[in-house]
Design goal:
mainly alpha, 10 helices, about 0% strand
Length: about 240
């Protein structure tokens, strides 16, 4: 029911585009400020480039993951009981080493994401851009999830694995699993954590992209190019017309 309502709403918005576009042009005396379809598509692409660049740059910096509570990677859910048990046995330092090393690996991998996003932006159609512009607050993030998740995982996994080895996360988590698995009457942990760390790194990037997308949609000051300002001004007017 909700999906059908969203589809009907999107169709209504798309039907309004020609008339709204004319109104927008009439309201702007300066011909250079009049947005074309290419302007609006370019505005969306500018926004996506800005959002992905800002997100990947922030997360690939030292403490980009570790210092950000929204994306910080913790023990896998199935290992959190083990973490609690080991901390109670005086092995808190080992647990801390695991958490730091997981986040360092994610920071290492985050810098590999931007070319994948750029490629997705290059292959974006006018329809894709329109759906993002007039869609929900996370429409761009959802577009990236659909078009880049599989490639991100394939690209990140070897980087994450190498980083885990480099920062000794494989060793530390293996030690945690080994110590915990020695305890009687516990369900043994799988010492392989690479898949988990890879997915959490990707999840963190999408969280940051969603935050930046919302910022661009809500704040005029976040729109750094003329085409971005034109595109989102048009989108705001279109939505108010409903």
């Amino acid at each position: 029911m909700i999906l059908n309502l969203q589809i009907r709403r999107m169709k209504k918005l798309l039907m309004l585009i020609p008339s709204l576009f004319i109104v927008f042009i009439c309201q702007n005396a300066n011909a250079q400020s009049q947005p074309s379809i290419l302007d609006m598509t370019g505005g969306i692409k500018d926004a996506l480039l800005q959002g992905t660049n800002k997100s990947t740059s922030a997360l690939s910096a030292v403490n980009g993951f570790l210092g950000n509570a929204a994306v910080k990677i913790l023990f896998p859910p199935e290992a959190q009981k083990a973490e609690k048990t080991l901390r109670s046995l005086g092995m808190g330092k080992l647990c801390d080493q695991v958490i730091v090393s997981l986040n360092r690996a994610a920071e290492d991998a985050a810098g590999q994401a931007e070319p994948i996003f750029i490629d997705a932006i290059k292959h974006m159609s006018v329809d894709d851009a329109t759906n993002i512009l007039l869609g929900p607050p996370d429409a761009a993030t959802q577009y990236f999830k659909r078009t880049t998740s599989a490639e991100l995982f394939a690209k990140f996994k070897p980087v994450i694995q190498g980083s885990l080895n480099k920062v000794n996360a494989t060793k530390y988590y293996g030690n945690v699993a080994g110590e915990y698995n020695k305890l009687p009457f516990v369900k043994h942990l799988n010492p392989d954590i690479a898949d988990y760390a890879t997915q959490k790194a990707i999840d963190g990037i999408f969280i940051e992209i969603a935050a930046e997308e919302l910022n661009i949609r809500k704040n005029l000051s976040a729109r750094s190019t003329p085409m971005m300002r034109k595109a989102f001004s048009f989108a705001e007017m279109a939505k108010k017309a409903l």
